[in-house]
Fold these 4 entries.
Entry 1:
Amino acid sequence: MAFLAFPQFIFLPIAVSFGYNKLYKNDDNLKKPVKYIFYKDYYVIKNFAGERRIDCINIEKVVEKESCFVLHLTSKLLQIIPRKGF
């Protein structure tokens, strides 16, 4: 039975990877830049889908990584902001 499941562990990630790359190359909306605007008590994310305002009064923790900032808004919610957003 295990030998029937083994090909799924190999071919499924490959299929997902090719499908994602094909979707990204064909969808111009995903290639449009995302704009981050920071204010004192909130920040705004503007992308092709619209505009989102996120209050950041009670941020629990900010982690600085090499390529991004990770804002822990609550214990179960985080926001990843790439460095190119600055």
Entry 2:
Amino acid sequence: MKRWVKRAVGSALALLVLLSSALYFYTKDYYHAQEQVVSVFSMADHIEVYDDYTVLAADSAAGLIFYPGAKVEETAYLPLLSKLQQAGITCVLIKMPLHLAFLNPNAADDVLAELSQIKHWYMAGHSLGGAMASAYAAEHMDKIEGVILLGAYVYGDLPDARALVIYGSEDGVLNRNQLTSGTITVIKGGNHAQFGCYGIQAGDGEASISAEEQQAQSAAIITEFIQSSAK
């Protein structure tokens, strides 16, 4: 009996090591932010970088917490968020463990506690980050006034009026059959990856507009949503 238990424990430990190694090598291969994101740090004002998140501060009562897509370096979304900052929205970009939002879905907790001066909070995210942001918002509707999903679908119980879904017409990654709720807006010519600046994503469609144009349109749509829904 003892010998059987030892074998079972040994097998379990071996499986755990194997899975841990597989996860390690999987996450080492991720999408890096492109060089143009450096210009955001040099040109934008009021950016504070902390261990787990970056704050792009604006003189506004509205704030947006952003969860990056799976295996995407978080700084790839700075160009989009800097446009929202210029529109008067404080943005908080979360740095996820191993670039996977599901490893820290409650990352917004710390932001809400630290930036208590913000009165109207919104969650946002891209792809997997959008799903995790949506799930968080659904569980914290007393604190979050709305959620913005980029190339993602609503995950959790959220009223349509409080969930904005934006995706590109050439998106080759998003499962559109899951787009069954939320207020949906399509960016003509956009794709999945161009909400950030990290290059071409495997399986994605080819965009017919630039990343700059896709992000500019997204920022305008998000700004209108927040301004119209803020209490």
Entry 3:
Amino acid sequence: MQSTALSTRSLDLLLLLRGSEPEGLGRADQVSYQIETAILMGILTEGDRLPTESVLAGELGISPITLRQSLAALRTKGLIETSRGRSGGSVIRRQIELTDTQLQHKLRDTSTEALRDLGDLAAAISSMSARLAASRADPQNVEHLEELVTRHRDTADERARRRIDARFHVAISIASQSSRLTSATLQLEAELMTLWWGDPGQPGNEGDLVEQHASIVEAIRKRDADAAATAAEHHSRSGTEYLIEQHLRLTMQAEGSV
């Protein structure tokens, strides 16, 4: 498998995922969860080469032994492959793809109240991130956001579109130049990635999403903080409404099949 060195930005995002793991996990399992989440979100992609064990363990603040335990668990799942020697190391082997059934069950089992709470958090984080980005984003940040809008618009695969949407929100938080907002966004998007966003065979809301993304970026480009915050909050609220609609429909379908 051809590999490429992990970018500094990807490593930084991986480190900011600390704290996203469920309670009760041991340290090795926490690190495995963080790397799996990064793969799920597309922060780490097939062919990415992780830093050497000594470097990665140091960045994560764990012992090399603990890291080796984490990497062994990931190898068992087929997510990475490791080679030894001077040019060796661990490389991401494949993308994680949750099945429609897994995603639907998670959304169905998440209560309407929990989805509203998640939506409130998303609206608060995204609106403040966009507000700060309108004041602090540099030209490279804006260019990257515009690139993500184009990629999202031109990508047909629903799973890939969802990962790009998550990266879009993360990119806004990066443009806000707030590491805490970026960490919160990463953890929020990691949770949203495990919910079902597609409905094969029925018309989607792709056009609305493209327009919403474009409106946010345009406001950031114009340094209009109020417009950026309003557009970002509207985008998050629309997503929450969509998830709640899907949750209620899946619940009714489950009740009807009993």
Entry 4:
Amino acid sequence: MSNPTNAMPLPVSRLALIALGLLGATLTVMAAARERQGDADLEPIASLDVPRYLGAWYEIARYPNRFQKQCDSNTTAHYSKLPDGSLQVLNRCRRADGRYEEVVGQARQIGPADSPKLEVRFAPGWLSFLPMVWGDYWVIDLDPDYQLAAVSEPKREYLWILSRTPTVPRQTLAALLDRLERQGFDTGKLEMTKQTR
């Protein structure tokens, strides 16, 4: 005959493990919810006139990122309309050895025709059905004349400052950096891009 007092520790320890597991899962879900809520704080501009945004842009500064490690200077982006309504993205930069490198991608708007939220992919077209090949591209700051822009994504891990000209007046850039700081960006992480044109 078994002793009921000896049988108790096993269920109690199982219950304790289950409770700890549920607590851990709950904390994970709550942390993820807080992270998503924090991501929602980033606001893009109110609307984007895509035809005005097309054309050549010079990179003025960027957060360091793995896919531009080889770029030493003269980084540019050129946007043009494709027949299906999406955009072609042509990124170009000069390497330290003087050679130029180009990559061609595609961008598509998310939402209405004036949406400042786009997605960009540089993977081959036949992979475009996979959600993970598309990255967020949000226009978060843009002057009324479409001459200076800031682009990022909801988590603020990436940031680019783009201009229609290879240089930007110091005061204009300082004002943009101030606006970006108010949106929660660490502008001290920005690397200035050399433009030798």
